[in-house]
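Hello again, I could really use a second opinion on something today. I've been staring at a protein lately and its backbone has me curious. Can you walk me through what the tokens say about the fold? Take your time with it, there's no hurry, and the full record follows here:
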Amino acid sequence: MKLKQISCAVIATFGVIGSAHAAIGGEKSQSFGLILSDTAVAVGVQGSFGNAPMDFSHLKAFGANANGVYHFAGSDIPVSSHQGLGVWDFKQVGAKDIYFGEWAKEGQDSAGNYTKQADSATHTVFYIGNNADSSITSTGSATYTVSGLNGGNYYAGSYNANFATSTLTGSLSNGTDTFNLGTASIGSDAKINGNNASWSGANLNATAGKVSGQFFNSQQDLAGIASFADSKNDIAFGGSK
């Protein structure tokens, strides 16, 4: 059965993440729960499998939807030791070794049964990727096709990088709610930082969001997160020229 095969793949993955990479870039919005490796494009969960990271190639065994988003809960795997893995939604940036998404602990009912639903109090957004840039061009501009994930919902849009003025702007929408990046700064170290991201729409309204991110592959790609006072508004994003 497919779930059994997936389970075996995930078991084999913990602690076996392949060779280390020299330029890993990544961040997460919460200090607890989710673990990001600093030597490989790999993730783990505190308290599961000795905190060992796992490669995304195995998490992708669950399959993606039409938007390229992978979703699973730990209780989807018919092995009790996996039920602490939480609820995941993540997406790959094209075919690059760059991922962004969200994680949360999996909720439980009054009888202690896992519900396959994310615990909103532990909502964590993240990105991680290989070939992170350490410097940036100071001329020209570029437009990136970007998508984002928040609360299991998919958002799409574009960002515009002006390398001459060291600024990044843009927005993402799902037709109901819109995330605006504000005006983020592009550092000489190829990192993205901002503090005026916002949401507007029928379900999400927030201001003063903190943006952090990274360019990859000589500015061909980018990924990042935005965090707000209420973590339900936090979003992860990624895209390419």
